[in-house]
Amino acid sequence: MKFLATLRNDLEAALAGRVPSRFTHRPQKIIETVSTGIPEIDSLTGGLPRGSLTEICGPPCSGHMSMLLAALAARTEKLEACALVDGHDAFDPLSAEAAGVNLKHLLWVRCRNIDQSLRATNLLLQSGGFGLIALDLSDIAPQTVRYIPLNAWFRFQKTVEDTPTILLLLDQESNTKTCASLVLSLGRNSARWSAPPEVAQSQSQPNSLARLLDGSGVHAKVLRSRITPVTAISSHPDFAPRAEAHSQETFRGYSETGFEVRTMWSYSGAMTSSPADSKL
Questions:
Q1: Greatest CA span in the chain, whole angstroms?
Q2: pLDDT confidence of 29, banded at 50, 70, 90?
Q3: Which of 260, 254, 258 is nearest to 275 (CA)?
Q4: How many other CB atoms are there within 10 angstroms of residue 200's CB atom?
Q5: Residue 126 burial class via C-beta count within 10 angstroms: exposed 0-12, middle 13-18, buried 19 and up
Q6: For the chain, first and last CA: distance in Å?
Q7: Strands 48-49 and 256-259
Q8: Per DSSP, what are the bridge partners of residue 134?
């Protein structure tokens, strides 16, 4: 036993600082994070980690598109080149531009199936030069996405590692297991309805069933996180990562959404969502 201990010490001394191995000590890796474009989500997650895979999962109409547009707007505002691999050809450029996305800095890859989406994502990761690459599978049935082998996510994670690129995956169920550094789960609460002004003011139709969509409660929860941010995302003294948070998402007609103030949150500004976020 003494001989083995001496041999191990000799190996550690010889390999230290040269070859990473389980025998050598490696300091904890610090991951740079950037804003998601939504201060409430920043306070919950610490931001989007660079050089890592981030997964945002949740059922339809739970805020995927709002988060995607906010992240793209935040990165293209900094003049970073971004890429969107659209797994179901559901992206709306007009809505994205209204949400603040600089389309001149966005590469939109329109795909028709998962195989095309995975190949396009792999090519973009290999090419480099992108600040954010988003793979949107949120409009594809969960049963189909489940058949993606785990080694595909592991390959993506290893490819993006030690690069300044943010790899963002959007789907309905969490599929990346431990390959993702951050997994955020979205959910939707019951919708709120209000009577149209003309119906509310009319006394002749007191039992009218006409209603307008006034809003829908949305909540977000961190399922997994290995992030150690370099600096705080927001200068607000009360912003700190939390295990769970809730927001209020308001729909005006079927085009504009925004987060209202609720408890500790203080986000303002309108974002435009796609029809996928506003369907019931």
A1: 96
A2: low
A3: 254
A4: 10
A5: exposed
A6: 67
A7: unpaired
A8: 84, 168
Distance of CA 242 to the CA centre of its chain: 16
**Which residue ranges form the domains of the chain, and what is each CATH number?**
28-187+219-240 (3.40.50.300)
Cα 7-10-14 angle, rounded to 5 deg: 140
Report how many helices (DSSP H) and strands (DSSP E) the chain contains, helices first.
9, 12
- The rounded Cα 42 to chain-centroid distance in angstroms is 11
Give Cα separations from 169 to 63, 137, 150, 224, 278 (angstroms).
14, 7, 14, 14, 20
Distance of alpha carbon 238 from the chain centroid: 22
Written as six digits, the tokens of 161 are 């590692």
Helix axes 114-127, 150-160, angle to 10 degrees: 20
Q: Give the residue from 69, 251, 39 showing the smallest Cα distance to 170.
A: 69
Q: Give dist(CA 226, CA 150) in Å, integer.
A: 19
Q: What is the DSSP letter of 240?
A: -
| Residue 37 CA to its chain's centroid (Å) | 10
The tokens describing 51, both together, are 């050089």
- Tell which residue, 80, 112, 78, 76, has the closest CA to residue 93: 76
Please, which residues have CB within 8 angstroms of residue 85's CB and are 6 or more apart in sequence? 109, 111, 117, 120, 121, 124, 133, 134, 135, 136
Q: Return the amino acid letter for 195.
A: A
- Per-residue pLDDT of 43-58, as tens digits, reads 888 999 999 999 999 9
Q: How do residues 98-150 score in pLDDT, each as one tens digit?
A: 999 999 999 999 998 999 999 999 999 999 999 999 999 999 999 999 999 99
Residue type, 56: I
Closest alpha carbon to 117 in 146, 142, 140? 140
Q: Are 132 and 166 in contact (CB under 8 A)?
A: yes
The helix (H) or strand (E) run that includes residue 49 is strand 48-49
